[in-house]
Amino acid sequence: MWTSELRTTDTPSDPPPREPLSDTLKRLRQDKALTLAKLAAQSGLSVSTLSRIENGQLSPTFETLEKLCAGLGLSLNAFFNSGQTSSLSGWRSLTRKGQGRLVETPHYRLELLCDDVVAKQALVFRAEILARDLSEFDTLQRHMGQEQILVQSGQLRVFTEHYAPVDLQPGDSFAFDSAMGHALISLSDTPAVVLWISTSGA
Amino acid sequence: MWTSELRTTDTPSDPPPREPLSDTLKRLRQDKALTLAKLAAQSGLSVSTLSRIENGQLSPTFETLEKLCAGLGLSLNAFFNSGQTSSLSGWRSLTRKGQGRLVETPHYRLELLCDDVVAKQALVFRAEILARDLSEFDTLQRHMGQEQILVQSGQLRVFTEHYAPVDLQPGDSFAFDSAMGHALISLSDTPAVVLWISTSGA
DNA sequence: GATAAATTTTGCGTATATGCAATAAATCAC
DNA sequence: GTGATTTATTGCATATACGCAAAATTTATC
Questions:
Q1: Which CATH architecture has domain A101-199?
Q2: Distance CA A67, CA A45 (A)
Q3: CB contact under 8 A, A77 and B78
């Protein structure tokens, strides 16, 4: 007998364990107060199949999975995301001035703020821009997600792929798609200081 | 013969069409420069099965899908997200000092920064805390998502459900689960000014 | 509690997914 | 180009998913 609890052997970069499919389905169905029969009607699947999936007795085919999601009015994405709700709730986190965790890179000196929360949707840090010339970057940084910076002090220049560079002053704010190559350099005598917000979007 | 191109009948709230599974797999595999044999080894599946999935000749079981994702080093989420490249990419947004859109509430005066982007994952604004006493709030604010505030000037007190109030000084940073009731009041003579970051988490 | 109704689970036959090994196609060396 | 090697596809046997209908369980009604 097959059960979705069975995990495959760990691979080098194994993602974190997921809620079993059986539980995901049961939860979503019961949240919507649907009986197996109703969901069967909406999805075009048989009651028995649904039952066996919820009991982990059967590994549905992708085709079945698609019908199932459609029947629930969800995209596959939404379906698989639904189980990933962090059990964490009601948390809070305080970082006093200057007490954040420090991270140094060749180009930036970062102080991570309130980074002791596991499921944080936005990373926020105070950054000193050490780089002073674009040539210091062998390649533009580029990743999934979005970023926003707010200038606290100093002057800086933002390079983004596809666009002309932008110069920023204290009080200015700049947001961009992280998929574009990007790099920051200080223009002022002392390194510019910015607040930097980064969201993964995953 | 089965093909993942076949879509089920539209349901009331049908999600947008997805990239066929066959294409998703082929794309991800080729991005990583893997042959069917290599991926087969990494995932514990047979070469033939992979071939048939990529040709839309077979609807893999959920168990197979899990092995497949593990072999690619992806979560199911990441796998299904991968096809959903946002039509929006390569955008950027600049708000100069004091030029953000203003929003007034009884308790706060907000200046929205870079809010002219539709699919922004984090809302960022500069806020003056007008409220001076908890009694001004008939009920604590409470919603989905996460928030973080960074004190720019003034002193303020943060009330959060389940916890004792916290007093913040310039430079302090405070993050919390928005599901907890929360409210901010100024303690200093002039209204405290904070940077406020809010993520929906949806 | 007993009976009825609704809901879920299970037996069984058919359709399909999977792995192995052979075949076909593509790529590389010369 | 021809042959060697790597890569992808296909035939076949077996294991498993799926739907139908019957059985078992749970829930509702009196």
A1: Sandwich (2.60)
A2: 7
A3: no
Could you report the per-residue pLDDT of A72-90, keeping only the tens digit for each?
888 888 888 776 655 567 7
Which chain B residue has the Cα nearest residue A75? B15
Residue B152: count other Cβ atoms within 10 Å of its Cβ.
17
Instruction: Determine which helix (DSSP H) or strand (DSSP E) holds B62, and give its type and residue range.
Output: helix B62-72
H helices of chain A, in order, are 21-31, 36-43, 47-54, 62-72, 76-82
Between A93, A195, A199, which is nearest B121 by CB?
A199
**Residues A80, B69: Cα–Cα separation, whole Å:** 13
Greater confidence (A19 vs A41) lies with A41
Q: What are the structure tokens assigned to B186, written together?
A: 């100024």
Nearest nt (C1') to A59 (CA)?
A: D17
> Position A74: which residue type?
L
Q: What does DSSP assign to residue A134?
A: G
Cα B57 to chain centroid, rounded: 35
CATH code of the region A21-82? 1.10.260.40
Rounded distance, CA B89 to CA A125, Å? 24
8 Å CB contact between A156 and A192 = yes
In chain A, domain spans: 21-82, 101-199
> Rounded to two decimals, what is the model's pTM?
0.66
Residue A50, phi then psi, degrees to nearest 5:
-60, -45
Q: Say whether B69 and A169 touch across the interface (CB within 8 A).
A: no
- Judged by CB atoms closer than 8 Å, whether chains meet at B15 and A84 is answered as no
pLDDT tens-digit profile of A139-159? 788 887 899 999 999 999 999
Which of A75, A89, A175 is facing B93, going by the closest CB pair? A175
**Domain B21-81 carries which CATH code?**
1.10.260.40
- Shortest Cα distance, chain B CAs vs residue A105, angstroms: 22
User: Which stretch of A135-144, B8-17, B151-160 has the lowest confidence by average pLDDT?
Assistant: B8-17
Answer whether B173's CB lies under 8 Å from A124's CB. Answer: yes
Average confidence (pLDDT) over B75-104: 82
